[in-house]
Each structure stands twice: as structure tokens, then as C-alpha cells.
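During the reporting period the student researcher (J.K.) took over the structure-prediction task from the postdoctoral fellow and processed the backlog of single-chain submissions. One of the processed entries is reproduced below for the supervisory committee.
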Amino acid sequence: MKNSGILILIWFLFLSSCSKDDDNGSNSGKVYVINNTTFGISSNKSNARQTTDGINNAIEQAKVEGYTRVKLNPGDYLIRCTGSDGYKDWNGLFMPNNITLDLTGVKLYVESTNGQSAKLFRIDQVENVTIKGGHLIGDRGDYSSPEEKHSGSCAIDIICSRNITIDGLKMELFAGSVIYIGYGYIGPNERRLNKNIKILNCDISNSWMHGIAIVHVSGVEIAKNKICSIGGVEPGFGIDIEPETGWNDTPPWKSWVENVNIHHNEFKDIIGYKGDIVGLGIVNDYSADIEVADNTFENAAVIINRNPKRIRLMRNTLKGWESYMVARTSEDVYMPLEGPNKNNHEFPERVANCSTQTGYIKETDNYTWCD
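J.K. obtained the following C-alpha cells:
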């Protein structure tokens, strides 16, 4: 009987420990709905400072309590987000690790920046983050002309992060790049690579510099988005794939872009800059393994320049005279005019593949524009 009592006690302690563990993680599958009153948040497009702090504090509180899913109630929220990094004054909305933020029915407005850089969402050195739904509205309307804009202004700034998904957002009226996938400094001249970034089902429009700028990343999927009316300042691309370099720095450095899949998107009425109406530009040597398939370009060109590697353009539809497709000085570019993977051009004479190492049958390409 004594031994039986000891066994019962051990079993009870085991069950208690399991129950405690379960309680610690019990909120992980639930949704933390932010209480605006508790955190001093205004949903009537006012009180930017207090609202910005309140949303950041609420997301952090949800994380402390073990939640991984957070929802902001429908409303109009004014966000203070000036500054190139935001950490000095905690401007902008900061996403922590392992959080899904649901913005369905939410409008987030950038408070007037008076010409300063502004980043609405800052996704910086984190992983496993999703932002879904919602409408992000920039401050482009505060400028009388594109020349007054600040190129560092964006809706979503992604640096040094991985496993990031942006799904179902409408984003408009930003002066710089709407979404910027760049690099940050984690040490002297050390730049951590972004990995596994997804931009899905978004509506990106009426912004000046870029729809999406891709600078430093391995693994990007851009699918089922609408990208239109982008342009006004250089370069004015719908999507700009353009790694950066600092050869004169000490030590010298470069960024790179690889493993990009751009599919089933709609590019329309790109404004461009000084006559270059570019839906997609791949313009740097340090880009590789990029597939662009099953997209529609309407009055939006595709330009490949400066020797990126292993580029595949397949089954895209190009409508309108401004929707041309040119590979200028690239290596290994596949952009067929015939066969099952052919690109469909309303004006096939506006196509040129000047790449030197395609590895494919050249008679499927038009070389009339090549020197």
C-alpha cells in the first residue's frame, strides 16, 4: 500500500507538470485581439504618437503572454514613422519573431513626415512573421512634386530577416519603394541576407520609386499581386531587382539576389521615369536564378541588363506597345517566342534577346536589336 501511495503521488506530480507546460503554451493557437482602450490607441486617424506606441506595446504584450496571432480592430490609425531606422524614437510598427498580424478592415496612415524618411512597418532581424489584410496609405500626397520625395520612405522595410509573408494588403501613395527587401548592418561591413520572403495577393499602386525593391535576399516568391501606376522618380519600376555594391568601402562589399520566383502577377500602366516604362527590371550582375512566369504586362516593359545569371521568362503575356521585352547584356536568358513556354507578345517586333550564353536554340529569339 505504501508503494502504491508513492506511485500515485509521482503520477499526480507528472500530470501537474504537464498541465503547467500546456498552460504556458495555451495561447499559441488563439488570437490576441488588441484592446484599443487598454493601450491608448485611437482608431479615428488621430493621436499618432500614442497610437504608434500603443500598437507596438500591444503586440509585445501578446508575445509575452504566449500568443502568436494578433488582430487589430477595424478602424483608421495614424502612425508616426519618421526616421531611417526608427529605433531612436520608436517610430513605426515593429514586428517581433513568430507573430502573425491580422489587419483585416484596418487602414494605417503615415503621419506627415515633412520630407523625412518614413517606414511604416519595420521587419528587422526577425523570423516567422506574417502581415495579412489591411490598407497601408503613405504620405505622397504631402509632396507637390516627385522631386521633393524621400527615397527611403516605404510601407514595409524588410532587412536581415527570414520566413516573412506579406499577404493580401493594399498599399498606395508611398514616395519611395512600397516594399523594400534590403540589408542591415549586424557588424562592421557585415550584411545579413534575407531568406524566404513571400509577397502574395497584394495591390500595390500609385507610388513613385518602386512597387517592390529587391536588394539582398535568397528566396523570394512574388505571386498573384497587382502592381500598377508606379513611377515619377528614378527608376520608377514595378519591381526592381538591383543588388548594391560598395567597392570603395573598407572592406569592399556587395549584396546579391538569388532564387526569385515571380508568377501570376498583373503589371499595368507603369508610369516609369523619363520614358522608361518598366514593369520588371533586373539590372545588376549579382542576380541569379530568377524565374518570371505566367504574368501579364500591360503597358509595362521587362528589361534585363548588366549580366544577371540564369534568367527564365516563360508564358508571360505582354499587351500594348510599351510592353516590350529586352535582354541587353545578360548571360543565359531564356525568353522563347515559340513552343510551350513561349511568351505571348501583342507586338513581337518589340522583343530582343541579346544574351550571349542562352544555352537554347537561338532561332526562337529575335536579335534584330542586338549590336
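The committee noted the following: The longest strand covers residues 194-200.
J.K. will present the remaining backlog at the next meeting.
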